[in-house]
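Bit of a strange request maybe. I'm writing a small parser for structure token strings and I need a real example to test against, not something I typed by hand. Could someone generate the tokens for this chain?
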Amino acid sequence: MPRGFFVTFEGLDGSGKSTQLRRLKEWLETQGLPVTPTRQPGGTRVGDRIRGLLLDSRTDRLSPFTELGLMFSDRAQSIAEVIEPALAAGRVVLCDRFTDSSEAYQGGGRELGSQIVLDLHAALCNGLQPDLTLLLLPDFNRSLARARQRNQRVAAAAGSDENRFEKENSDFYRRVFDKYREIAAREPLRVVTIESDDSIDEIHQRIVQVVRERFPESR
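Reply from user aminoacidic:
Good idea to test on real output. This should exercise your parser:
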């Protein structure tokens, strides 16, 4: 059986990643392709517990190194339990965040640098790389404002609170944003940047075009 196709979505919170992942999943399914959606952190029973710890705004005084280690613990579990089995079964895996997020948020935002992230990826993820990464970079200020407003609504409606990162200041997020651009410049064959404030439908059509070009079976 041919190996599947691994697509990751990256960008700041509020960039529209989750919406575009869902739209792409629906489109791929109309093409008759088997799709496995997942997210990081989370996506497994262990990962969801790690996610709760990492994103809850009540989690304080967490060392940047501890944060990075937890991110990779979640990722290693996701690869073993979800991603690799799905790829081996010939499925299309759509993942909301992967190692690029750690490089951007911990390497850039927390100022740990890229090398420690890349070394952990090689050691704990067996160097697994996406076949395609879709990096969504709409306007910086609008993206950040949307993320904060969304998480406040979710917290009010559901009682859950995943606002720990949204409490960071704009300088932190500017470092994350700049690191994403650095990753895209370093890996232009894997990373396709969509730096646009177009509508959800327009961005979806752009993504479909990219996927058609990179993944012939979706035509």
